[in-house]
Amino acid sequence: MVSGDGPGAGGVDPQQLWLSSPRPRKGRKPAFSRAAITAAAVALADAEGIDAVTMRRVASQVGAGVMSLYSYAPDKETLLHLMVDHVSGELSPPAPPTGDWRADLKAIAHAQRALMLRHPWLPTALFNRRWSLGPNTLAFVEHALAALRPTALDGAAKLEVFSLITGFVARLVADEIAQAALAGSPERAAAEARYLAAVAADGHHPELAEALAAPVRPLTPDATFARLLDRMVDGLDTGP
Amino acid sequence: MVSGDGPGAGGVDPQQLWLSSPRPRKGRKPAFSRAAITAAAVALADAEGIDAVTMRRVASQVGAGVMSLYSYAPDKETLLHLMVDHVSGELSPPAPPTGDWRADLKAIAHAQRALMLRHPWLPTALFNRRWSLGPNTLAFVEHALAALRPTALDGAAKLEVFSLITGFVARLVADEIAQAALAGSPERAAAEARYLAAVAADGHHPELAEALAAPVRPLTPDATFARLLDRMVDGLDTGP
DNA sequence: CACTATTCTCGTACGCGGTACGAGATTAGG
DNA sequence: CCTAATCTCGTACCGCGTACGAGAATAGTG
């Protein structure tokens, strides 16, 4: 194993995963690298979706044998953690806190949204997995905590707020992506519209019928995001 | 096919899925039912997690051949949609709106949380998939829209709020479940704590070190949920 | 310079997943 | 009864993650 190995049963010990070993003094030299493999996996996910990230396809992208990947990550789950932390590196270094924590928080959310739009598999990956706090993720958390320093929140509450914001962004971006996908497939969009029209016409869903009858607002996703984010952040309190 | 079949390429036409066909007048009688299969899948997911829900295992639970399931759902993705709508049936009938839309919204969120705690696979299932609006889901949406009637929000904004609340609940419950799982495995919890201590000690993460150094609040998940929900709902505006 | 311990590479193989196919069973209408 | 329609399900295919272990490369040792 390139970076050591733990006996831990189920899941990977974060120390073994993120804290680099000093490189063994004997043995064959690695032909690849964790970074290269991770980057290939990210490129694959960006181009063809997260389902295209299979050990076989990643291996062929980097020119390795399939089983060679297991010298760099003990399993696929770990590779996904590496991917998440890898792209999180694009977030740093962010601007230093301005003292206006609400504005800083909004800037953080906007940066996260841009990242997730660039890597559409990220919202799902973040939601499903228990976080593995790699160096890039940690750097960003550190930044968020610094931005929240002017508040009266204690440590746990600050982390809560950060988690809440991240989840909020992930959800909105996931919706945004789904919406875009739907718009890209007129046949499916039409089927959905037909179904909703049928439901609205059945008489058992008056509220829904009314909501759908209203004219569609021609709002850009950016505006929607900014509006909801503002509401959310402005609603956050600084009390204990 | 028990309920008809569409030519739609990719994804299932909601009309074919949710609007029942009149039952064909010829041909062999179905030996199972969509409801029974769905219930079996839900029971399996509740007992052993969503990964235990495979076509083979569901089939053996209901006493059917594997391929017989495909007479009731065209693919596994659809079966998952059926599961989501199935458990959503436990939400209705909710209490009628009281006129205090904030209180109603909080009640809705609490009901959703209880449902998700009963079916821990639900948050993930909701996040990943594009919603398929089955009858039970629709009934609940209808109820939420009615609760929001006293607000000045237009139809689209009401749906937005509902989606936001649902996502919020899903995220908190997912965290809650992960936290419980971590607490149930002391070895993993200890490894995590060791790692965070090492990070805090490296000098590059002062904010994180401070946040972790603070004494842990002994709050119940229920209290945390209620507190964050209150903040969120109270922060929502009724303006356009 | 062998010799050896160590580490990485990767072909093969196993079990399990979703599901296409098609033959046989069952039903209702003519 | 015959025929067309519908449902049942055994078999089979391909792709997945990954265990295993043989072989290749490296660095220290005599």
- Any idea how many domains of chain A? 2
CATH-defined superfamily of the largest domain in chain A = Tetracycline Repressor, domain 2
| Largest two-chain interface | A-B, 67 and 66 residues
Radius of gyration of chain A: 22 Å
Q: For the report, how would you describe the main beta sheet of chain A?
A: none
Ends distance of chain A:
46 Å
- How much helix, percentage-wise, in residues of chain A? 55-70%
Number of strands of chain A: 0
Overall form of chain A: flat
- What is the CATH topology classification name of the largest domain in chain A? Tetracycline Repressor, domain 2
CATH classification, class level of the largest domain in chain A = Mainly Alpha
Mean pLDDT rating of chain A = 91
Note the run of SSEs of chain A as H and E. Answer: HHHHHHHHHHH
Strand content of chain A: under 5%
